[in-house]
Amino acid sequence: MTAPWSRSKLSWLLMTTIAMVDASKHKYIMYLTGQHNVVPRPELVADVTHVTLAFMRSDFFNDAGRTEWPLFTTIEEVRPKFAVGTAIQVAIGGWGDTDGFSRAAKTNESRELFARNVKAMLDVTGAEGVDIDWEYPGGNGEDYKQHLNGEKAWEIEAYPKLLAEIRTAIGPSHIISAAVPGLPRDMLAFTHGTIPLIAQSVDFFNIMAYDLMNRRDNVTKHHTGLDLSQRAINAYLERGVPFEKANLGLAFYVKWFKTAADADCHISPIGCRTDLMEDPSTGADLGKAGAFSWHDAIPLELSESFKRAIAEGKYEDGGYYYWDEKERLFWSWDTPTAIQYKLHALVEKSALGGVFAWGLGEDAPKFQHLRAANEVMRGLVSSTSEHVYEERSEL
């Protein structure tokens, strides 16, 4: 068992350093996942401001007597791999992990227990904060066919209350971020009425501007394209998220979808009809869509099609794609250049608070997408610092 973080004077000094990070600096966040626990050499992550370890199960925090907080790694193992001052967070939850949150949000007592356990976990592990990955409060999660949205409508009001309880428990010196859906149809708990309440508790919103096409769709579109990403960002800004608390999500992975046999995608591969991709009764995956990261081995049955996609893919309407006529596969992904264009168009021009990526190890071993993002983010930090200096010089 790791000793509580507060007992170490050196650790206290490190936390003080983190708290004093230049406020003008854009947040540059990398999720480090148990699926791809790979960190490149230090110079490639020197500009990263936050590392979020994904995931710790939400139901851990419903246990009154819990003293251990299992994760795929430890804060002590991760911290030396990044620059001094990089904040380390623990992501709780994730896609499909909703039951623990639902139980926690039910009552004042259950919210208090969950929040106390979050505080206990931070004390034991030494993390600087948490990322609340209750991605679909109010419905539209993985279990939306088993538990209809009407059954979860109460979560819309309970979600900000749970966040407020966590903030009260951990205090102002720790970080709370929230991973939030990128499709307006899924933003059930993120309304004009709830977002101001949520924003009181969280330091920033990680807007998942990816998986914007998924197996619930029936026509092709860019899963992480510029236009849909802009729409996702705008939806949150219009509902009250402060610009400086909005972070754009990047996808360091590839998605594919099977188009319908009788669909003519020659005229327009974007907007082309797909095969039925999920069971209409259960919501189960029918195997007509999938994803893999740059670190993964390409599935053998997809390898020839993906070679063609890489060789012949093109950028159009804000995203990179390829339609393989032979296999009837629609491919959607971001190239390094597409990522750079997106960062300039959205983070810089919209004056957002920062950017995050899912995930760091997913871009191994070449880390080409990370390198591309690094180049832009360094420029944004430099530009912001110069702008602040010029303003102060005129006073």
UniProtKB/TrEMBL annotation:
Residues 26-380 form the GH18 domain. One of its GO terms (biological process) is chitin catabolic process. This is chitinase. GO terms for molecular function: chitin binding; endochitinase activity. InterPro entries: Chitinase_II/V-like_cat, GH, Glyco_hydro18_cat, Glycosyl_Hydrlase_18. PANTHER family: CHITINASE (PTHR11177). It comes from Cucurbitaria berberidis CBS 394.84. Keywords: Hydrolase, Signal. One of its GO terms (cellular component) is extracellular region. It is an enzyme of class 3 (hydrolase). Residues 1-23 form the signal peptide. Its EC number is 3.2.1.14. It holds the Pfam family Glyco_hydro_18.
